[in-house]
Design brief:
This protein is mostly helical. Helices cover 60% and strands 0% of the residues. The chain contains six helices and no strands.
C-alpha cells in the first residue's frame, strides 16, 4: 500500500516537471540563428536602416506587424516563419524573390503577398531584405499576443495544479497524523 502511494506521488510530481521541460525546450528551440549575408547577388549590400524606413513606408507592417511579429494575415518575420516548400527562409535570395514576385496565399494566413518589383528598385528590395535579416540576427522579437496568452494560461494552470496537489497531500498527511494521535489516545486510555 505504501509503495502505491509513493508511485502516485512521483507520477503527480513528474507530470508537471515533464510538461515544464517540454515547454522550455519549445521556447529555446525557437531562438533564431545568426543570419546569412544580407545580399544574394554581387551588388551592393542592403542597408537595414533604409529597409526599416521602407518597411514602414510601404505598409508592410499592416500585414507583418510593426515588430515583424506577423499575425493572421501574414507570417512573422522575426523569428522568420518556415513555410511549406521553403528550405531556408533566411536565404537572402528567397526573401528578395518573395518581395519582388510576391507569394500565393498560404493556408495558415488570410493574406496574399503582393509583388513589389514594379514599385521598388533592386536596392530597395535589398534594403528590406537586410532589415529582415538584421532583425533576425538580433534575436526573436516579442511574443505575439496569442502566444503570450497561451503561455500565461499554461503556467497559471500548472501553478494551480501544483497548489491543489500540495494541499491535497498535506491534508492527507494531516489526517493520518490526527488518526495516529487519536489511536494513541485510545491505546493510552485502555491501558489505564
Amino acid at each position: 500500500m505504501r509503495g502505491r502511494r509513493h508511485l502516485t506521488a512521483v507520477i503527480l510530481i513528474l507530470i508537471p516537471v515533464v510538461l515544464a521541460g517540454w515547454t522550455m525546450t519549445a521556447v529555446f528551440a525557437q531562438s533564431p540563428s545568426p543570419s546569412p549575408l544580407p545580399t544574394s547577388s554581387g551588388g551592393p549590400p542592403g542597408d537595414p536602416a533604409r529597409g526599416q524606413q521602407l518597411f514602414a513606408a510601404q505598409g508592410c507592417a499592416s500585414c507583418h506587424g510593426a515588430n515583424l511579429e506577423g499575425g493572421s494575415i501574414a507570417p512573422r518575420l522575426n523569428p522568420i516563419t518556415k513555410l511549406a516548400g521553403v528550405p531556408n527562409p533566411k536565404d537572402p535570395a528567397y526573401i528578395e524573390a518573395t518581395i519582388c514576385n510576391g507569394r500565393p496565399k498560404d493556408p495558415a494566413y488570410s493574406g496574399t503577398m503582393a509583388a513589389y518589383c514594379p514599385a521598388l528598385s533592386t536596392q530597395q528590395i535589398r534594403d528590406l531584405t537586410a532589415y529582415i535579416l538584421d532583425q533576425n540576427s538580433k534575436g526573436g522579437g516579442t511574443l505575439d499576443p496569442v502566444t503570450l496568452a497561451r503561455s500565461n494560461v499554461f503556467w497559471i494552470t500548472i501553478s494551480i495544479f501544483l497548489l491543489v496537489m500540495s494541499t491535497y497531500l498535506l491534508a492527507r498527511y494531516n489526517m493520518r497524523w490526527i488518526e495516529r494521535r487519536a489511536a494513541e489516545r485510545r491505546e493510552g486510555g485502555r491501558s489505564r
